[in-house]
Amino acid sequence: MDQEDPQSDIFSLSDHLLAERLHFIKEIGFGNWGSVWLCRPKHSSSESDHHVAVKLVHRSKTSTTAARVRSLWNEMKIVRSFKHDPHPSIIPFHSFIITPSYALITMAYLPALIPVEVAEPKAKDWFNSLLSGVHFLHERGVVHNDIKPANILLSPQSVPVLVDFGFAEKYDLSSPKAFHSNLAYGTPEYLSPERARGLPHDTRKSDIWSLGVTFFEILVGRTPFEYEEGEQFSTKEDLEKYWTRTMRGKWVGTIKVKFSKSIEKLLKHMISPNADLRWTASEVLADVYWTMSIEKQGHSESSGFDAGLVLLMIYLPSCREIGERGSRCIAWSCA
């Protein structure tokens, strides 16, 4: 039986009614967890307006599929919690639909992926908006756990929007265990050193690490621990080498673009290998960088940098498996 509440955004429909409601235009991404489709409501008055992105999981009687449906339900609950308390840099939620064959989330469709190798004056506003969005999440007990350029889209107004909350977690802020984890999952190149090793860590600090690496990549075109764009980390040994670089905290490779000394300093605070010294979102937002003009900040032209921060030397066990998505996670934007 189809169950609909006009006041609700959660629906139980038959497969037939789903097909009558949504026109599935094309698949724009896929992975072991499911697929993402560009769709349009069939009763829409315009061919181009009201496009939505649909994240879809096939339902079947297997434990793996059941886990994916539960993960999608968890993702829905997190993004839905912001429906009446939105932030411009967090993807808007539309609805959750379940049928005998599918479970799916519909959200705003944003076709443009955030570019990289962007000049700092243009990127600065994007950085501030994304940082504000991450601070917004943390203040509400949510961590994203998979921040990277492939999970950032641009709105028609050129506002960066964080998407794909498939790895996100929501904590009870009153719990002494809030934001505590020892799990290791996400996209390897963006994992903080402590998260990559599965050590006990503050998940908010790991989000800030990933955001700092993301900012660096938007400016430079690669992460600070890749010698060149597209360097491959397809084996466990390759990843060990990469994570050893992150522990040293020294940016590698030749940096051909110029950016201000102030953003360099800010990034070092965000990408500190010592989580105790790494800044929180609030601390990054409070930095004077955001109120200064870039022209007055001077430029850094170094080809490589030392983290410039004290690193407590600790023993790290061997790396753990990162999760079923492999070394490159499939993004909502499917880049």
Automatic annotation (TrEMBL):
Identify one Gene Ontology CC term for this UniProt entry.
cytoplasm
Known Pfam families for this protein?
Pkinase
GO MF assignments:
ATP binding; protein serine/threonine kinase activity
InterPro entries attached to this UniProt entry: Atg1-like, Kinase-like_dom_sf, Prot_kinase_dom, Protein_kinase_ATP_BS, Ser/Thr_kinase_AS
Tell me which UniProt keywords the record has, alphabetically. ATP-binding, Kinase, Nucleotide-binding, Serine/threonine-protein kinase, Transferase
Superkingdom, taxonomy of origin: Eukaryota
Transmembrane helix as a keyword of this entry, yes or no, is: no
Positions binding ATP in this chain are K55
Which PROSITE patterns does this chain map to? Answer: PROTEIN_KINASE_ATP (PS00107), PROTEIN_KINASE_DOM (PS50011), PROTEIN_KINASE_ST (PS00108)
- Listed Gene3D superfamilies: Transferase(Phosphotransferase) domain 1 (1.10.510.10)
**Residue span, Protein kinase domain:** 22-290
What's any GO biological process attached to this entry?
regulation of autophagy
What family does this belong to? Belongs to the protein kinase superfamily.
Instruction: Read off the PANTHER family from this record.
Output: SERINE/THREONINE-PROTEIN KINASE UNC-51-RELATED, SERINE_THREONINE-PROTEIN KINASE ATG1C
Name of the protein: Protein kinase domain-containing protein
